[in-house]
């Protein structure tokens, strides 16, 4: 097994996930099978209980794992299917070791960070790296490991020591480290001192980077590259510039143009791996398709304006997969995406009193958009603004896509304004509502939050007589589809007949016909709500169907 470690210095959020994904993509273009592991040094067992504004969105996998958003990057770039085991956290490792200690597996020894925690980390990596992740169902050739946070943080220390030992065990030609650092520009000069300090930190921890990836605003000057190479004791070709580009999809091209592939081949002795001719051809086709699609972005002139009405708009990473899915769909519709962020609370009448300028600007953004999307979320804040946006889309024939909470919002709006249930609501928001059109799932837990929602890959069955459905046609009229879920609340079955008679069509239900999965308005250009989260399965080269429908309709 070959390992590529991507670590970071100076600051967090520097783009390690995109660089790790891009490196994996370049390896796949050679015909290699690639898997990925993300290490998060926080104590949480998983990302499920963290607020989106705290750590960005929670990404959900087929097996229901609630994981770090970077695993979404890996799946989107590499077209692989990961599991919850591909996300390692401090909480998971300590829980695993403590369970073993309680069973007596350590035979009475004093359990310590070294060797027990570090050994557990290495064992976890080696075990997960061998699990097939693509349609070949074969053992991967290379495992990309991303170490979250910044080298030098206290919480990262056990992982760094474990990776130092793993490098020693794997052997020189089976382990490569890419260290991502920052090269800021101050008074017009590219400063190398932060990178020099970062490399000293990582070397003092026992690791030695084979490649320094420098995040910068503009391409590095030859003098800057030479200086970094000199003071960090690497060759010039081991310093690459990852400067700002039009989109993150250009990063693989940027790395390819700086000959990262040759460095990967040399450092990891990839020429010794026997790659079947069919896989080599597949890799070349993948690269040609990616390059063609990405470069076409630079030649797009027609725009499509989408208003994202949400409650976590202060941190755009809260809706990262939603944004990426819109980008994928726009690329395939040959449109330049103009995403307008609308804070749901700003659409509510109370805002017209407290901040009229903010109120009118928010409504201007909604009214001038080509399409409206309301993504998932929890809690009461901003729901009335979302309901108002859904009403505008329905009445003015504006393409609309509601995801999870967004679907529930569409149902509440229809119940109120078409069915005459003026106080209809979700019990999550109004426990005493006389018309609870959205209810808590019977099997859900109200005492524990972690891993207690309806999670993971679940079937949705299109109902008889729904051949007219646009969303069904987007799925090529498949009778059944599989999408990922993450929710605690659902449409109340007691109200389905009443809503259906009034014209709201539940075109997709679960395999037992008990849960409402897809709602659609007949005769509307595109008014769709889905209980699942299709953004979790969108890929750069294969966009999510509900998102593709929204962008296509909004583009005319």
UniProtKB/TrEMBL annotation:
Keyword annotations of the record: ATP-binding, Glutamine amidotransferase, Ligase, Nucleotide-binding, Pyrimidine biosynthesis
Taxonomic superkingdom: Eukaryota
Enzymatic class: ligase
A GO MF term: ATP binding
Entries under InterPro entries matching the protein: Class_I_gatase-like, CTP_synthase, CTP_synthase_N, GATASE, GATase1_CTP_Synthase, P-loop_NTPase
A GO biological process held by the record: pyrimidine nucleobase biosynthetic process
SUPFAM superfamilies in the record: Class I glutamine amidotransferase-like (SSF52317), P-loop containing nucleoside triphosphate hydrolases (SSF52540)
Known EC number: 6.3.4.2
One cellular component term from this protein's GO annotations in UniProt: cytoplasm
Record pathway: Pyrimidine metabolism; CTP biosynthesis via de novo pathway; CTP from UDP: step 2/2
TM region positions: none
Domain CTP synthase N-terminal: 2-270
Catalytic activity reported: UTP + L-glutamine + ATP + H2O = CTP + L-glutamate + ADP + phosphate + 2 H(+)
Domain Glutamine amidotransferase, chain residue ranges per copy: 315-541
Known function: Catalyzes the ATP-dependent amination of UTP to CTP with either L-glutamine or ammonia as the source of nitrogen.
Protein family: Belongs to the CTP synthase family.
Name used for this protein in its record: CTP synthase
